[in-house]
Amino acid sequence: MTAPFSAASLGPDTTHEFAPQGGTPLILALPKGRILSECGPLLARAGIVPSPDYADEDSRRLRFPTNDPSLDVVRVRPFDVATFVAFGAAHIGICGADVLMEFDYAEVYAPLDLGIGKCRVSVAEPRETAGTDDPSRWSQVRVASKYPNIARRHYANRGIHAEVVHLNGAMELAPGLGLSRVIVDLVQTGSTLIANGLVETEVIAAVTSRLIVNRTALKTQPEAVGAWIARFRSALDAA
Predict the structure, then answer these.
(1) Do 21 and 93 share a domain, yes or no?
(2) How many domains does the chain fold into?
(3) Which of 95, 114, 135, 169 could form a disulfide with 81 if both were Cys (CB 3.0 to 4.6 A apart)?
(4) Is 111 found in the same domain as 29?
């Protein structure tokens, strides 16, 4: 049987001098899924070793201790990381720039581009209609997306009214079933678009993951939060 996890089992505490006020650990919010695995080497270089099951997608636990008693890790949906940090449930987090663009929380400060989770927010439409009409002449368009704010801003900047059908998944089905003319979605390789008869017609923004912090936490606990920013910056420099 595996021995129970303890912070001491993962090595000495190297940052106890940066312990947050009141002895309560700071919370680092990490996104489930693809980016979580890409976070592993970065966390290691920053000296953060969470309990072994933090990367196990089948684990029912959502909060995990680390080798540093001043830091715990929580694992949440990628779209929720910024919300946890904005409302102070987590002090720091790793979050895709797409999420920051969509929610634009004033309470969130993003000091570091971590260079992981590379993808893009793009417009796509059916192969049959792509290039047959000039989008600059549109006055309105129906868009399926889980990014309603990004989609509306993108088309509003061009004087086009976007009627957004808010979907949380299976966006690629929307044009073929008459739900929308185009989609705005996160694209990594484009293989899902191709498999569903769509083509990428425009890139709205390139996306990487960012280190984010709660502004109030940075103001009230500058040494503790600032020390973690510095450690992540050093981890990037060591890459």
Answers:
(1) yes
(2) 2
(3) 95
(4) yes
Query: Tokens 């796509």, residue?
Result: 124
Amino acid of residue 87? F
Give me the long-range contacts of 168-176 (CB less than 8 A, separation at least 24): 171/144, 171/145, 171/146, 172/124, 172/196, 172/198, 174/144, 175/125, 175/126, 175/129, 175/144, 176/126
Dist. CA 147–CA 185, nearest whole Å:
7
| Gap between the Cα atoms of 13 and 44, Å rounded | 14
Which tokens is 174 given? 């929307």
Domain interval for residue 229: 7-117+208-237
Please state, in angstroms and rounded to a whole number, the distance separating the CA atoms of residues 239 and 182. 39
Distance (Å, whole) CA 18 – CA 152:
42
- Same structural domain for residues 11 and 53? yes
- In the chain, what is the straight-line distance between the N-terminal and C-terminal CA atoms, in Å? 36
User: pLDDT tens digits for the chain (239 residues)?
Assistant: 334 333 333 333 333 334 455 578 999 999 998 899 999 999 999 999 999 899 888 888 999 999 999 999 999 999 999 999 999 999 999 999 999 999 999 999 999 999 999 999 999 999 998 988 888 889 999 999 999 999 999 999 999 999 999 999 999 999 999 999 999 999 999 999 999 999 999 999 999 999 999 999 999 999 999 999 999 999 999 97
Written as one letter, the residue type at 186 is: L
Q: Is 78 found in the same domain as 27? A: yes
